[in-house]
Write a structure and sequence with these properties.
The protein is an alpha+beta fold and about 375 residues long. β12 and β13 form a beta hairpin. The radius of gyration is 27 Å and the shape is globular.
């Protein structure tokens, strides 16, 4: 799913757009015991509660695609009778009205979700009448020709509120605050089926994780039957390791800088395209060649890539490129540069020493104090 499709579903979680038919929940304690369950027609809930649920549901579709929101494809085995995708289809088609299916789903979550503490399993069913769109992107509310029927699940921690003093209006006094259990924003969740190309895709699901580096893979694998891709942090570490192993001990500063500049250029050229920019093994090799990596250092590239990331793994450019800053670090000095002006930092041999050289203009500040940049380098050093 692309960002526009995710946002389209999120916009349903408002009073004017809501079409949610049913909401179900199961409260689980730290010992994995079911404390209570509920199931309601969503629009029959008090208005104040509806708004609270809207916040939880929207959060399950929030974050960065490729980091917090992950597109997962079901393996063929999961679509057979008894598979995870087949079970989720039955759960969706039941419109959450079959108690036996709900109990089976709750049991699956409790058995697979690793969490120390209490949590709430929330599950909704919705049938979204998808409006048509003109070729120039205008929505036609009266031209719908498809219905997107889906379920959304979110796992929300439930913790005690903080202790403190509170003001009692009736007695006009301050007393110790009564602590109660608060449902917090979700840690994990999923949308099934996926809403790809603004249509139902029963072969995919959209997975949410609050912490990209702790994505609860056991939950995704056991409930969805799909393995999670490398996390954003792991992709970045993998890419950095691949550069170092390819270049070897004599990694050249200019080559690494060229890789950064080429990645930045790719992101800029792709910014109007909604689909995430991905690099497979061959595209990473082409990037290295374009950046000046010598052919002799690319002889074993395929083996290095397979060992680092896996032969069929693609890397998301926004996960491996540092778009916020270009950083050069030594044991004693750290230089941070606008990522679009990495060309301002170069290398030079001065008096037999390898030096970093920074191009400066007329405005220079030292600890916030503006100084004159009357600095020159002798021609002998160039």
């Amino acid at each position: 799913m692309i960002k526009q499709e995710v946002n389209e579903i999120k916009r349903l979680y408002t009073p004017s757009n809501c079409s949610i038919t049913r909401i179900c929940g199961c409260y689980v304690d730290g010992e994995k015991n079911k404390k209570t369950e509920f199931k309601e027609a969503f629009l029959s809930l008090p208005e104040e509660e509806i708004f609270k649920y809207f916040e939880l549901l929207r959060k399950t579709l929030s974050g960065t695609i490729g980091k917090n929101l992950l597109d997962l494809e079901f393996p063929l085995s999961s679509e057979q009778e008894g598979g995870t995708q087949e079970f989720l289809l039955r759960l969706r088609d039941s419109k959450l009205k079959e108690d036996s299916l709900l109990e089976e789903f709750y049991d699956k979550v409790i058995a697979s979700y690793e969490y120390v503490g209490n949590y709430l399993i929330l599950l909704i069913h919705d049938a979204y009448d998808v409006p048509g769109k003109t070729t120039d992107g205008l929505t036609m509310d009266d031209a719908s020709d498809t219905v997107f029927e889906y379920i959304l699940c979110c796992i929300c921690p439930v913790n005690l509120s903080k202790p403190g003093l509170s003001y009692d209006v009736q007695t006009n006094e301050f007393h110790n605050r009564v602590r109660d259990w608060i449902v917090e924003l979700p840690e994990a969740g999923f949308l099934f089926p996926a809403f790809n190309d603004r249509a139902t895709d029963i072969h995919s699901a959209l997975y949410y994780t609050k912490n990209p580096e702790e994505p609860h893979p056991e939950f995704a694998e056991n409930i969805l039957g799909a393995a999670l891709p490398l996390s954003a942090g792991s992709q970045k570490e993998t890419f950095q390791a691949l550069i170092e192993e390819t270049l070897g001990e004599k990694a050249e500063y200019e080559v690494v800088r060229n890789i950064h500049e080429n990645l930045t250029e790719m992101i800029e050229e792709h910014k109007e395209i909604p689909e995430p920019l991905m690099l497979d093994k061959h595209q990473v090799r082409n990037l290295f060649e374009k950046s000046g990596v010598e052919e002799e250092k690319l002889v074993d590239f395929d083996k290095l890539y397979e060992a680092a990331a896996g032969n069929d793994t693609s890397l998301m450019v926004n996960n491996v490129a540092n778009t916020r800053t270009f950083e050069v670090k030594t044991p004693d000095v750290v230089i941070r540069v606008n990522p679009e002006r990495a060309d301002l930092v170069g290398t030079l041999m001065i008096e037999g020493k390898h030096c970093l050289v920074i191009e400066i203009n007329d405005h220079v500040e030292v600890n916030g104090v503006t100084v004159h940049s009357g600095i020159s380098i002798d021609d002998d050093y160039e």
